[in-house]
Amino acid sequence: MGTLGFELKSLEVFVATAKTGNMTAAAAKLNISQSAVSQTLSTLESNLGVKLLDRSVRPVELTVAGRYFYDQSVHLLEQAYKTQHVITKGSFDSLHLVRIAMVDSLAATVGQPLIEVIKTHTENWTMMTGYSHLHQQGLLSRGIDIIISDDVLEKEENLRRCQILKEPFVLVLPRQFHQKFPDLCSSLVLLSKHLDMVRYSEQSLISQSIETYLHHQGLDVPDRMQLDNTFAVLSAVAQGLGWHSQRRFA
């Protein structure tokens, strides 16, 4: 990755010159020599490959590129001063931003209390839902700070893992089928021979967990229906289209 072409000190010099319109005044404000201001500005323009100041007029004026760079420089310096203040103050009770991702079903059950806790420890926060494998990618690429998932990403060493809940799987059946054929419902082997299974989409982590369990049980259940959210899956079961295995959240 190449260098930026500027450092914070050069931004301070540039902003001070733009505000005062005079290199001498900028030098006095920053307690450096006028020649140091001139050299810093020349080096900055050379590194960026663009003219930032029109020196042919008095007071000096910003070019079009200089106006854009001035706005960005002010923003960068404000963030730098804020960061310096937080660091030197030595208090880190509050984070600047926390980005969290979890599956829809968890957001519905633990989202509200989780957000209340997060609010007490961060200045800003975001929460998103969706497929777990996308959350994992976001975490590993540092686009997400925390994921709540049942995949602990065992192959990734530089992660901290905290267990926050544990829940079993339950068998979800159409009410009428259970009432009519109770004996068939006592065995997955028998059940899968008489009723189709309603699955989550294969991209979802919960689907992968269920398929792993079925494989360990020696079951090869035909793959006929894949739906992408819990409401659609349970609605299909309620209509008698099949059975389903679902996590039970406490």
Structural notes for this entry:
With 250 residues, the protein is α/β, with parallel strands linked by helices. It folds into three domains: 8-89, Winged helix-like DNA-binding domain superfamily/Winged helix DNA-binding domain (Arc Repressor Mutant, subunit A); 95-148; 169-247, Periplasmic binding protein-like II (D-Maltodextrin-Binding Protein, domain 2, 3-Layer(aba) Sandwich). It has ten helices and nine strands. The protein has helices at 8-20, 23-30, 34-48, 64-89, 104-119, 132-140, 175-180, 188-194, 205-216, 230-238; strands spanning 53-54, 61-62, 95-102, 122-129, 146-148, 169-172, 198-200, 225-227, 244-247. The strands form four sheets. It has a three-stranded parallel β-sheet, with helices on both faces. Strands 1-2 form a two-stranded antiparallel ribbon. It has a two-stranded antiparallel sheet with strand order 6-9. Strand 7 (198-200), helix 9 (205-216) and strand 8 (225-227) form a beta-alpha-beta unit. The chain is elongated and about 95 Å long. The two termini are 48 Å apart. The relative contact order is 0.09.
Give the N-terminus to C-terminus distance in angstroms.
48 Å
**How many structural domains?**
3
Number of helices: 10
- CATH superfamily annotation of the largest domain: Winged helix-like DNA-binding domain superfamily/Winged helix DNA-binding domain
Strand content bin? 5-15%
Helix content, binned percent: 40-55%
User: Largest sheet, if any?
Assistant: 3 strands, parallel
Strand order of the largest sheet: 4-3-5
**Average predicted local confidence, pLDDT:** 86
The name of the CATH architecture of the largest domain is Orthogonal Bundle
What CATH first level of the largest domain would be assigned? Mainly Alpha
Q: Which shape, going by the Cα principal axes?
A: elongated
CATH-defined fold name of the largest domain: Arc Repressor Mutant, subunit A
Catalogue the unreliable spans. none
